[in-house]
Amino acid sequence: MARYTGPKARINRRLGALIYETSGASKALDRRPAPPGMHTRGRRPSNYGIALMEKQKIKHYYGLGERQLRRYFDAVSRRSGNTGELLLLMCESRLDNVVRRCGFAKTRPQARQGVVHGHFFVNGTKVAKPNYLLRPGDIIEVRNREKLKDVYRGVIANSSPDALDWVAFDSENLKATVQGLPGPSDISLPVDANAVVEFLSR
């Protein structure tokens, strides 16, 4: 995905959710929860507009481009089960998302940057692709450089990692072990995935 570099507070306000977790964007959403712009207040979006907003939530939250989201959708469409739920579970299995939720980073863009810069190894091999899909048994570790480890120890000390049933996190050794697959209760984004499936099925 071409990385989004615009004002994150506007995205939060436009989508009505805490998509970007930086302190400034969070405060802006608390202060002014209404969508930005002069002519947006009081207007009720159409069903198409609602579905589009739900799709944008997924794209911005997980850092996906349009083509990547559609590839994920095509992949889960061939599986049995709830397509919308499977789509979100695939997004939850991404390396950058797990790095963020374990507490290695405070935001997903920060986690993505760390992965791209080669700060993390998976099963002893450097992985620089944020969209790498983790599987049970995978072990995520910070690259063996003391200065880098000190940086991540500081981040972990000042962050509040999510408790994940499917990932065991060892903060002392800066290691996360994938023990299973995420379930519906592990989805961290409140979104109407079924509306997104209908939108992408057109």
Q: In words, what does this structure look like?
A:
This is Small ribosomal subunit protein uS4. GO terms for molecular function: rRNA binding; structural constituent of ribosome. With S5 and S12 plays an important role in translational accuracy. Residues 3-92 form the Small ribosomal subunit protein uS4 N-terminal domain. The protein folds into two domains: 8-91 and 190-200, Orthogonal Bundle (Ribosomal Protein S4 Delta 41, Chain A, domain 1); 94-181, RNA-binding S4 domain (Structural Genomics Hypothetical 15.5 Kd Protein In mrcA-pckA Intergenic Region, Chain A, Roll), CATH 3.10.290. It has helices spanning 8-15, 23-31, 47-62, 66-77, 83-92, 95-102, 108-116, 146-157, 193-200, and strands at 120-122, 125-126, 139-142, 167-170, 175-178. It has 202 residues and is an alpha+beta fold. The longest helix has 16 residues, at 47-62. The protein is globular, with a radius of gyration of 18 Å. Strands 2-1-3-5-4 form a five-stranded antiparallel sheet. The chain contains nine helices and five strands; from the N terminus they run αααααααβββαββα.
